[in-house]
Amino acid sequence: MEPPRLLPTRQALGAVLLAAGRAAEAEAVYRADLDEWPKNGWSLLGLSQALLAQRKSDEATWTRQGFERAWARADVKLEASRF
If you compute the radius of gyration of the chain from its CA atoms, what whole number of angstroms results? Predict the structure, then answer.
């Protein structure tokens, strides 16, 4: 059995892909994470950003709303899917 990861790798990879201008690949990474963890706020935010970068505004808006619901009680403001 593998020990728990200290750094969520999918969110970090998605953020790096976004920064590199590879939004479609970042979208795939975030979607893979959301398949396993459907309400993960980090991945919802990253997916929203990846969709916006691809000008998929309707889907990005829907995803952003999911992020806002998932993150409603958090005391940390996210700017990206990783610190």
Answer: 12
Burial of 24 (C-beta count, 10 Å sphere; 0-12/13-18/19+): exposed
Question: How far, in Å, CA of 75 to CA of 52, rounded?
Answer: 25
- Reported as half-sphere exposure (CB side, CA atoms, 13 A), residue 32 has a value of 12
Prediction pTM value: 0.88
Per-residue pLDDT of the chain (83 residues; tens, 9 = 90+): 666 667 788 999 999 999 999 999 999 999 999 999 999 999 999 999 999 999 999 999 999 999 999 999 999 898 888 87
What size, in residues, is the chain?
83
Of 69, 25, 71, 72, residue with least CA distance to 47 = 25
